[in-house]
Amino acid sequence: MFCKICAKFGRSNQSNQGVWIDRPFTKVKKLFESALKHDQSIGHKQSISMKQASMTCLSDDSRHQSVINQLRSFANEKSISDKDVMVKLFDAAYFLFRNEIAHTTNWEPLIKLLGRMDFSGRIQKFVDNRPRNATYQSTTSVTQILESISFALDEQIVSDLKISLHKFNFFSIMADEETNVQTKQVVSICVRYLCSDKKGIVERFLASSPVPTTDADTICSVIEEACQERDISLKSLAAISFDGASNMSGCRSGVQALLKQRHCPNALFIHCRSHRLQLVLQKAVGENKTIKRILAVLGSFYKLFSMSPKRLHQLMSIEEALGFPQLRAIEPSPTRWLGYELCVKRVLEIYPAVLATLEHLHTDGIDLSSTAGGILLDLRKVSTIFILVVLDDLLRVLARLSKLFQTANENLASAVPITQTIIAYIENYNLEEIHLKCDVIIDQCTNKGISIESDKNGIEIVKKELQLFLSKIAQNLKIRFNDDAMKFLSVQKLFSVNEPEETFSNSFVQGICISAACIKSFEILEELSLFRRWVHHSSHTNMTAKEIINELIFGPNCTVFQAISKLAVVYSLLPLGTATVERSFSTLNRIACAQRNRLDDCHQSCLLRLSSEGPDSESSETTTLMEKAVQHWLTKKRKL
Question: Would the pTM of this model clear 0.90, i.e. be above it?
Answer without folding.
Answer: no
